[in-house]
Amino acid sequence: MDSALDSGLFHLALPVDDLDAAAGFYGDVLGCRRGRASPRWIDYDFGGHQLVVHLVDREAMPAVASNPVDGESVPAAHFGLVLAWDAWDALLARFEAHGVPFAIAPQTRFAGRRGEQRTCFVCDPAGNYLEFKCFRNPDMLFATDGLDYP
User: Fold this and answer.
1) Coil, strand or helix at 7
2) Within its chain, how far is the Cα of 148 from the centroid?
3) Model pLDDT for residues 63-105, shown as the tens digit of each residue
4) What residues are paired with 109 via a beta bridge?
């Protein structure tokens, strides 16, 4: 099914309470190219998509609910990228080099099943959760047939 959204790029704006800390994480740790900026926000190229961090007061940062997924309490509000298998390994090495702690340690989810994937969660300095994953078979990203998950 064709969609008017098929050729669109993703735009995500999220709150941070320290622009310098956000710049260190998104620019230095993740290596995202910095775009436009103001004293209250910064644009980043996040895997070809537009990510904007907006400065807010710490008290305005939203609480995050969680949801059980394959034995983990996964933050319901999160974003990230689906990477190639080797790129995921390289990103984990980058996290280790920068001393980034994992909110959910790297693991294989749905092992041995058609939707097998490797995943990890980290937080940016403002507490926003990011998930990075890769699929053993990338064709399973949107598969629905025969994939019955609890």
Assistant:
1) coil
2) 24
3) 889 988 878 888 889 999 999 999 999 999 999 999 999 999 9
4) 117
